[in-house]
Specification:
Elements (H helix, E strand, L loop, with lengths): L10 E11 L5 E11 L6 E5 L36 E5 L14 H15 L6 E5 L1 H12 L7 E4 L7 H19 L3 H16 L2 H7 L5 E3 L2 E3 L3 H12 L4 H13 L11 E7 L6 H10 L4 E7 L6 H4 L1 H11 L18
Parallel strand pairs: 3-4, 3-5, 5-6, 6-9, 9-10
Antiparallel strand pairs: 1-2, 2-4, 7-8
């Protein structure tokens, strides 16, 4: 396998200790893990992904492993960390330490605490995909002075009831696994259900249009190997408690678009079964002139952000700074480990 491109610029990777009053879980002492890549005097953009995303967005000189959005930070991209400081963090509860409801307001408040600790007055931009978009919307309501522009991809102001039903069934799969003392099998099955909601029937028709096989007296369809692999990869890095509580957090999410205090670009994907186009339009209408809608057609559905690197980069180029060079905010020395 060829080596992944490394970003030849400063990398700060560490943790801060914080006390966070949460909405449902009381006041918690937390350790917020972050990674910050880019020149010390460059403007800062926070990048946040789905509930299984983390602080390592892309390979860099400190950590050459592929990140969850590998490719979007390559040289020449909109998020090229030779020109920007790209900040990412591990979500509150991602380590499985909180077995109580977690709200997107908690995540937004944690971002504000992290910015305080790092000496970052204001983000030049915030790019949120899926759950990260929900957190960005909450940040734009609760701490609008901390960011200049929000790009919300495949995430809106409220969960769609159809998507919430999908997640409820996934959580029941995990609960059933626990009853059978088979936590990993339950979580794997939940992830496999999730993959069906992330992608589209069109993609499955193209990739898995092969006759079923009879194996050991049972019928096995063409997509099962793919789904099994996705489940196994997921359980190797995510705890059941973390996944359950962050899955619930999506369904608890509510934002009044009229209270969003910064300009927002909403990127919606045709065929996204979790965030339908109608909900993206409703968000734009509720923003009262502070929003702009861009539409992407992709066979990858909700996962388009992770698969359509060139097209997402082009959208970010036009939306994040509207063709203007970003302005570097005032910062003081950061925290590193």
């Amino acid at each position: 396998m060829p080596a992944l491109p490394q970003v030849a610029c400063a990398v700060s990777r560490g943790s801060i200790d914080a006390v966070l009053p949460t909405r449902y879980a009381g006041t918690r002492k937390l350790r917020l893990n972050f990674e910050l890549v880019g020149p010390a005097d460059a403007p800062v953009v926070l990048v946040a992904g789905g509930i299984s995303a983390h602080r390592h967005v892309a390979a860099n000189a400190h950590n050459t492993d592929a990140g969850w959005a590998q490719g979007l930070l390559d040289a020449g991209r909109t998020l090229d960390p030779s020109a920007l400081r790209v900040l990412a963090f591990d979500y509150v509860g991602a380590d499985g330490s909180i077995d109580a409801p977690i709200d997107t307001t908690d995540q937004a408040d944690a971002v504000a605490l992290l910015l305080d600790a790092l000496g970052i007055d204001v983000l030049a931009g915030y790019v949120g995909y899926s759950y990260g978009a929900l957190v960005g919307l909450q940040l734009a309501v609760r701490h609008p002075q901390r960011l200049r522009k929000l790009v919300a991809v495949s995430g809106v102001h409220r969960p769609h009831p159809y998507a919430a039903a999908w997640r409820a069934l996934q959580r029941k799969a995990v609960a059933l696994g626990r009853l059978q003392c088979a936590d990993e099998q339950g979580l794997s099955l939940a992830r496999q259900f999730a993959m069906l909601s992330y992608r589209t029937p069109e993609e499955f028709a193209e990739r898995f249009d092969a006759p079923p096989e009879v194996c050991n007296g049972q019928v096995r369809v063409a997509a099962e190997d793919y789904l099994d692999a996705a489940g196994a990869k997921f359980v190797a890095r995510v705890s059941a408690t973390a996944w359950l509580r962050l899955s619930e957090s999506i369904d608890l999410h509510r934002v009044d678009p009229a209270q969003v205090g910064v300009p927002v670009s909403v990127i919606a994907v045709e065929g996204d079964r979790l965030v339908p186009m109608d909900d993206a339009v409703a968000l734009i209408e509720g923003l009262n002139g502070r929003g702009r809608l861009r539409v992407l057609r992709s066979p990858y559905g909700h996962d388009a952000f992770l698969k359509e690197t060139d097209r997402i980069d082009a959208l970010l180029a036009s939306e994040l700074f509207a063709g203007k060079p970003p302005v570097s905010p005032t910062t003081i020395s950061g925290v590193s480990a």
